[in-house]
Amino acid sequence: MAEQKFYGGLAIAHGWNMVRKYWLIILLLGVVYALFEGASGTLTNLSGKPQISLLEIGKLYRDPGQRDRLFQALRDSGYIDENGRVQPKLQDAVAPRSLELSLEFQADRFEIYEFLNQYRYRLPFPRAVYYLLAFLFWAAGLLMSVGFTKVHLMLMRDQEPEVSELFTNGNLVVPYLLGSLCYGLAVLGGFILLIVPGIILSIMLGLYAYLIVDKGLGPLAALRRSRVITRGQRWRLANFWGMLLLLNLAGLLCLLVGAIVTGWISVIASAYVYEKLENAPDVQPQALAA
């Protein structure tokens, strides 16, 4: 039987100790992330959804007949095409009274207008600007993902990070992105092969992000290294992920604050497990090149 190189309970306890010690910087990082997500979400919401489905109309009318008739009415008025894709005419519907509706839906004009409003483009600049901003938000989110991985490692090592860590690891963005794509494709392929191989691959390769950020490995090298350092520990890792799942479910029962605390405990504990596996004495180091 393979030697046990980490203990899930100790990892979680370490995560809790670091959260208690660095709660102020963790709170600040959370505020920065919330502001970023709020700005990104507002941009997305104001850009409007591109297509209306019968399922979404069902939120207004549970009766299938009414639902189908409203869909047809919106098509007849030129607000959507036959597949539900939003048409430019919807931009002209800037008030409930401006809606062109059949008599059946006149009494619900205000509710229908509020429903349709989420599909209108409501930003004060051209769509080309929106697409540019959306790309910049996506790139910034990717950069922050790398930064948070670095932050998790620093907290695990009892080092206090700066907020700037979220935005100062640009050299790792491309390897991180490529590694994430390779990991996702491998796991997806495993799930297509009757689910179980996908679970095994997710455990086997799941430490790739730490290896990219911590060791500077290329995407393929990080995936290979993750496979090496998890050998003989995969069943224990599965149990550990199960412990984290239960921990976070308990956090959800304590509403938002509990979920935030358990989330931070989980990511620090995961970094702790990575550290134990990567530095195990019987694991031969590999070259740091991609």
In short:
This protein is mainly alpha-helical and 290 residues long. It contains twelve helices and no strands.
Structure description:
This protein is an all-alpha fold and 290 residues long. It has 2 domains: 8-43 and 130-278, no CATH class; 54-117, no CATH class. The protein has helices spanning 8-21, 23-47, 54-57, 64-76, 109-117, 127-156, 173-192, 196-205, 208-215, 219-229, 234-253, 255-278. α2 runs antiparallel to α6 (127-156), α7 runs antiparallel to α9 and α11 (234-253) runs antiparallel to α12 (255-278).
Distance between the termini: 32 Å
Helix percentage range: 55-70%
Outline? elongated
Order of helices and strands: HHHHHHHHHHHH
By DSSP (H or I, 4+ residues per run), the number of helices equals 12
Number of strands: 0
Query: Which percent band covers the strand fraction?
Result: under 5%
Protein structure class = mainly alpha
Radius of gyration: 24 Å
Number of spatially distinct domains: 2
The biggest beta sheet reads: none
Low-confidence parts: 286-290
> What's the overall average pLDDT, rounded?
93
